[in-house]
Write a structure and sequence with these properties.
2 copies of one chain form a homodimer.
Chain A (H helix, E strand, L loop, with lengths): L18 H16 L9 H8 L3 H7 L3 H10 L13 H15 L3 H16 L1 H29 L8 H17 L11 H13 L3
Helix pairs in contact in A: 1-2, 1-4, 1-6, 4-7, 5-7, 5-9, 6-7, 7-8, 8-9
The structure holds a DNA duplex.
Chain lengths: 203, 203
DNA sequence: ACATTATGAAACGATACTGTTGCGTATCGA
DNA sequence: TCGATACGCAACAGTATCGTTTCATAATGT
């Protein structure tokens, strides 16, 4: 017998790495990013300090700052509400309402900003974020629209990707370019969905 | 006689400030921002070097880096094509086509990223950019839609701000979350406009 | 000519972060 | 108990930028 192997992988000798430290590091990074610190100015020192951890502990796990940020963003899972409501309209409103609610948090806004700006200089990061955080949402939205085209609530020839762009894009546009101070109307999701559905419904 | 006053303002004694230097500084700043340098990491030294100018010359004119960036972004005027085409549809397609064409330039994308991220930490900058670069576009788009509601091409009860959000938002969404590598279809503007107009046209 | 202000270049001390190293301690398997 | 590895902490030299200052020179008005 060499080692008691509960798992298939040989456990290396010595003290194992602390999962708590790892989590603290990622949380600290997300905290800082969520406060508006950009990726380039995000310093390992600040992360270590915030996490109550030595820099060594960080460098031992990630060689790049970008790798760390990628792992941090990948740990984010978007909240997707159950979308099996009475109608496509209800589901779309529910979906946009959650998106709008989320975008009222500083943290979400900052991280979205980072992700949207990342394509130019951190494509790996953007790609990963897209896969982890955006795609699941798009899939949920796509399923709702797909269902609509199948049960007759929506036009059968509706371009679903286009419909998604219209719904999500309108929401994004309003939350981005409406002054940020200017309070968005509480029924914005309903307004968007109702306007969009005019074109989505069968003749 | 105190001074030859071609203008109403008294010209101060001594060597006048070089307009060429001022322009070079702003151009250098825009260049760097357009290459993906973010505001926080944009260094005065880099600007001075790029502009072929002493740091003194910069500090003499702007006390903040933010002030400089604000002036730099304010010097940008968006290209707005003449929108008096045969139909509302044509004008909308023309408009979105220009937007799409612009967004294929690294420089435009980077500066848009900065502007969109600026609300959180540089609200003055965002506000200024909105007034200088966004509002004129919105006004042009609004005029087209307004005309449509008046001449019967569009529903008379169309919510114009919402329609703008749908059109611009759909375009923004597609250019932002489509992988950046994935080439957007050449007729994307037509697709967006045609889908949107389904709901905008009178019953 | 002379006063005045701006210019580009260079150097300054101060601050912050980098990535690495050494230290003493803690936690694991054998 | 012992070897091995991770931990938090502190210090290191190296680099970059900050905002300021000094300098010789250039450009303007009187």
């Amino acid at each position: 017998m060499t080692t008691q192997q509960t798992e298939g992988v040989a456990r290396p000798a010595g003290r194992p790495r602390s999962e708590k430290a790892e989590k603290a590091i990622i949380d600290a990074a997300l905290d800082l990013l969520g406060e508006g610190i950009g990726v380039p100015e995000l310093s390992i020192e600040a992360i270590a300090a915030r996490a109550g951890v030595g820099k060594t502990t960080i460098y031992r796990r990630w060689s790049n700052k970008e790798d760390l940020v990628v792992d941090a963003l990948a740990s984010l899972k978007p909240p997707i509400p159950p979308l099996h409501g009475a109608s496509v309209r209800d589901d779309l409103v529910t979906y946009l309402r959650v998106v709008g609610e989320e975008s009222r948090h500083m943290r979400t806004r900052c991280i979205m900003n980072i992700a949207m700006s990342a394509w130019e200089r951190h494509p790996r990061l953007a790609e990963r974020f897209q896969a982890i955080a955006i795609e699941p949402r798009k899939a949920a939205l796509r399923a709702v629209l797909q269902r609509g085209t199948e049960n007759g609530e929506l036009r059968s020839d509706l371009d679903i990707e286009m419909a998604m762009a219209i719904l999500s894009g309108a929401m994004l546009w309003r939350t981005k370019w409406s002054g940020e101070n200017a309070q968005l109307p509480g029924d914005l999701p309903e307004q968007i969905v109702d306007e969009a559905l005019r074109g989505f419904r069968p003749r």
